[in-house]
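During data preparation, a discrete fold description was generated, as reproduced here:
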Amino acid sequence: MVLLTGGGTGGHLFPALALAEELRKRGHAVFYLGSQEGLEARLLPQTPIPHALIPAGKLDRSAFRPKEALKLLQGLRGAWRVLREHPPKAVLSTGGYAGFPGAFLAGLKGIPLLLHEQNAKLGLAIQALSPWAKGLALSVPADLPPGLGKKARVLGYPVREVRYPQAEAKARLGFDPQKPLLLVLGGSQGSLELNEKLPPLLKPLGLSVLHQVGERWVERYRFLETEDYRIAGFLDAPLAMSAADLLLSRAGAGTLAEAAFHRLPALLFPLPPSLDGGAQAANARAYQKAGGAELGEYERLPGQVASLLERREAYQRGMARLSPEGAAGRIADWLEEFL
């Protein structure tokens, strides 16, 4: 049996779910260990995956938080019980605060541990777990200490590998197939900053725009809608990315992996490092270095949009260099080496 652990947010959960599906296809039994407070608490009961939910204290870069430390101790106790009742042959952790307790104890018990990092900068949980790990699967190239670099492989970020012909996707979304389509994403919850700053800059361009504002912001931004500027609370990513000619978004690992799979050039507006420790800024630099994206600048945005659309094929080739196609299979192959 393989124990999968990680979550708290979709960025940590969805790659693990994709890997669980791949392992089940190969005939392996899987068990998922997640957090009582994470997104997995809502989604796992909707899947056929056996699972347990435990308390999980959030690791903090800036301060010691007694309540979170207590949750971490409770989580370690819960994870110990799960490992005793469901002893795995190997463990894979996708990180996040939910991915620490079970993986940490597995490492101490000598159970083979494989880590998967979604961002171009290692998260706190992955950093803490790395001394016990047999291997580290990276989504994109990252700067690593020499010792850790020896056991790291760039294998990609598992995504839903579904594409549609662009003209068909535009038509299904109600857009003119002959007109460039800009896709605005602010993460699954939407971004208030992008919601406020981008519409006044994009509307005068005369292009088609599909803007995911986030479920909680739909009514607030309903006034933006026109025939060529549509808003949505949440979008089906494969359909929207198949239709789009250019992405304007934050720089979350999952969004960028999906964009790379769809060869979709991007203008990126990463979160400030004070909010995420610099993970999104590192992601943006990685995709910019590969030639698939640029950092967005509000004061230069109209010119940037025109430039990326004009050189779209070159940026598509850059995105293809970081395509995660086949990532779940590659990670499963490596994990099977420990079974």
Notes: The CA atoms of residues 236 and 297 lie 27 Å apart. The first strand starts at residue 2 and ends at 5. The mean pLDDT is 93. The longest helix spans residues 66-85.
